[in-house]
Amino acid sequence: MSQVINTLLDEIDRLYPPERINASRRRLAAVWFGHELPDRLPFVFTHLPADAAADEAPVPEGELKAEASLRGQLESIIARAVLTDDYIPSLFPGLRQGLLTTPYGAREIETGGHIWAEPIINDPADVYSLVPPDFTREGVAAEFLEMIRTWRALTHGRIPIQMPDMQGPLDLASNLWGTQDLIMAMMEAPEAVHALLELVTNDYIRYLRLVSEASEGDWVPLHCMPSVWMPRAAGVALSEDLLAVVSPRLYREFGVPYNERIARAWGGTVIHSCGSIEHNLPALAATHGLVGINISITETNLDTVLDRLSSQQVLLAHHALLTCNDLPHLTCEQFIRCAFPAFTTRHWRGIPMPIPLEMDRAQTLEVLPLAHELAVLP
């Protein structure tokens, strides 16, 4: 296996020479740090499909052995080299909703082809019996750390590690308590909710330190999307899908303070949410330490986001098969025609991320010249 891995790494070095990596890093760093773009708008396709069209982007989920996952990802990095976008090679540990809840004893179940973790809190009193677990020994958290260490050993540290998909405090609380019961508790037992949020905020900060250690400091603190590079100095990312379902009042009380704690601990935060979050954009944009947000423009209106987001905050935008609030479905080409000009003319601190949904390899490569054309600065 070691010889196979070394051969794949050598091919990645050949296909992504330093001049290519450095050019992309300069463009992306200019967006993250608010500098003048060196030549064009950076953009990153989420992936390059195989020859057959796929309904959705592949997400590493479930229990795949470290060696098999590593080889598959290295082969995918090689295959996508023909996409002359701003992708910088990295390895993504994956997406597991039970990452930080299985160490508490939550049980993973599989439904609809996805893995979920069952809630373990049934009563506000249960919150006070939770004991911070040892993430190096328990649950999915320990599995991911071991996978990262294995990858570092097998690759001899030649390729950085993208952070795993990390749920933020609200989502972690929801996974432990259940969404409906958590929202009810916000109104009926707010002290218990705050106690839980305090606990899982500490968990988030503590676990990311372990990820950094396992990665030997060579990691990318962004998972939304895991194909995009972000400098360590810019902060860290978190997912907060409850943004789409809680009211602005509840989000200001139960979401913002804990995200601000994470931003203080790590130098900033990028927040992802699925669904429509237009009602929470004012509170989100006012979050101290917010570096940027990640949304789908088929779920949250792009013009509304640009109107409410600070010019100092980064927008990572993609599209999806899901649509909300009568927003139109967008093909990959339509997304490029819609989003790229918005960034180059209105909000250049952005990174569009086309997703080749329901497209094959050839169709994806056909829209690549359009992306380069519309990424040119006016």
Provide a concise account of the structure shown:
The protein has 378 residues and is α/β, with parallel strands linked by helices.
Give the tally of structural domains.
1
Strand content: 5-15%
Beta-strand segment tally: 9
Q: Which second-level CATH architecture applies?
A: Alpha-Beta Barrel
Distance between the termini: 49 Å
CATH fold-level topology = TIM Barrel
Q: pLDDT under 50 segments (min length 5)?
A: none
Report the average pLDDT across residues.
94
Element order: H for helix, E for strand: HHHEEHHEHHHEEHHEHEHEHEH
Radius of gyration, whole Å: 20 Å
Instruction: Using the coordinates above, name the CATH class.
Output: Alpha Beta
The computed structural class is alpha/beta
Instruction: Indicate the overall shape.
Output: globular
Estimated helix fraction: 40-55%
Number of helices: 14
Description:
The chain has one domain (2-374): TIM Barrel (Alpha-Beta Barrel), CATH 3.20.20. Helices cover 44% and strands 9% of the residues. It is built from 14 helices and nine strands. Helix 7 crosses helix 8 and helix 8 (190-214) packs parallel to helix 10. It is globular. The mean pLDDT is 94.
Topology:
Blueprint: H1 2-15, H2 18-33, H3 66-79, E1 108-111, E2 114-117, H4 124-127, H5 139-155, E3 161-162, H6 169-177, H7 179-188, H8 190-214, E4 219-220, E5 236-239, H9 248-254, H10 256-266, E6 269-272, H11 281-285, E7 290-296, H12 302-308, E8 314-318, H13 332-345, E9 350-352, H14 361-374
Parallel strand pairs: 3-4, 5-6, 6-7, 7-8, 8-9
Antiparallel strand pairs: 1-2
Helix pairs in contact: 1-3, 5-8, 6-7, 6-8, 7-8, 8-10, 13-14
